[in-house]
Request: fold
Amino acid sequence: MTTTATSAAASQVRRPDPEAAASGLRIGGLTRLTTIDYPGELAAVVFCHGCPWRCRYCHNGHLLDALDRQLLLPWSEVRDFLRQRRGLLDAVVFSGGEPTLQGALAAAMAETRELGYRIGLHTAGPAPERLARLLPLIDWVALDIKGLPEDYAAITGVPGSGERAWDSLRLLLDSGLPHEVRTTLMPDWNAAKVAQLAHRLADAGVRHYSLQSCDPSHALDPHLERAPQPLAELAAAIQSARFARLTLRGH
Reply:
């Protein structure tokens, strides 16, 4: 084959279609307007389907397991909605489930950014290698840190999950991206346990930290009970000055 023929053949090679790639995103729901899921911005939230962990206090159990694709929301419908809301919304947050496990997420984020939106991500960090590839597409991250690494298996049901989550934390801190680290408190934790985790996170470099109480009413574990102490009491031993912002959510 001549050089000219080779060049012509190469030009006809089909390149990946970004819209087609994004269409593979498995979406379990869409919040069309929120003021609380991306700090300071009017946002929409895309809830991605699937998660490798089974956290006892999870309240999005309907997003965890495989679902008939006919029951999922098509990316094309979400994309059309976002096109219509340009100038009215500021940001789009990809949440879950666990969005980073979906191969189509990067393409969906890239499309969304091209529409002029800031990109937010809610993740528990189960796949640090995937998170590393996504970070250049993202403007803000909320990372769930569920406990010290050794506490994870009792929460998620998956051995080794804590090490992966804390690897994701290190990646996020090294990236310099704006972020918030969040922890939902297990009902049997005491104030000393909460302070130990908070101070370990502060030592790692976390500056914005949020604690929220566990709501067992819609938890994946039906035997989970409400914490006997109010959230403020559990957080009382934290040296709040070690954080630029410490937020308590719940009771």
